[in-house]
Amino acid sequence: MTRHLLRDDDLSPIEQAEILDLAVELKQDRWSQRPLEGPQTVAVIFDKSSTRTRVSFAVGIADLGGSPLIITSANSQLGGKETPSDTARVMERQVAAIVWRTYAQAGLEEMARGTRIPVVNALSDDFHPCQLLADFLTIREHKGELKGLTLAYFGDGRSNMGQSSALAGVVAGMHVRIASPIEYAPREDVVADADRIAKTTGGSVALYTDPLEAAAGADVIVTDTWVSMGKEEEKLARLRDLGAYKVTAELMSLADPAAIFLHCLPADRGYEVDAEVIDGPQSVVWDEAENRLHAQKALLVWLLRQQG
Ligand code: CP
Ligand code: NVA
User: Fold this and answer.
1) pTM for this structure?
2) CA of 289 to the centre of ligand 2 (A)
């Protein structure tokens, strides 16, 4: 059966761990897996801007023996002119997989329903599961086991990064704290899904409005931009509403002394995080950005294996 990665809980705990193990192997021996030898092509479609996702998929697909086809949707028929399912039906006869960065999660779901090749969410308004695989590879490298660690996320909890942190975290058996104003908390259905998964993995998800309480003793501190792509018109309100959730040196001092700091980047220093934190000794953001390459290669290898 064709498998897709549209949201973090599309992977079971065992599958998430398998992909992370594979990512460790691929990081040690970068050209050891060549499932796209031929070369076969993978389409990588962007409805929104990107640096890391574009580079890491292009390089990763080439590393796997394949050929990346990078498409900017503004110059394609996708996006108003042709449906995601018709697009997928055309592409599936020529490419091995589709990677898509878009706005609505519903578009990804429609594309996945309409095709027999894997569809990967390269960021939507709701989830960023590729980023979380890279984040968890990074956490494993710095802290060992994921299970039982406390991850605290600060800022826009309803963003792709807030919601993916909640879901991926409980899949890994982590204790996830989301610190945000109530109106920026993750969607109720996402919290309910995270809660249900947590009961099976020994993890937990908890919502906080007090950032100091959320930081206390945490092993991993995470934040992201306060103004995600597509939210630019809300910028002034967001800077006002989220100001209290900035990751400062003072907030970091409340976490476990060995805590690490993650940010998916791009970062706005002085807004969601102070320069002394992101450029300081606890920050692992450059490892995290590199790990997009290794984690996504592992994901593609794994998805292609499921194709049989
Ligand atoms: N973190 C991330 O997805 O970065 P890009 O927007 O540059 O791809
Ligand atoms: N939440 C951010 C992530 C960027 C990689 C956004 O959607 O713009």
Assistant:
1) 0.98
2) 13
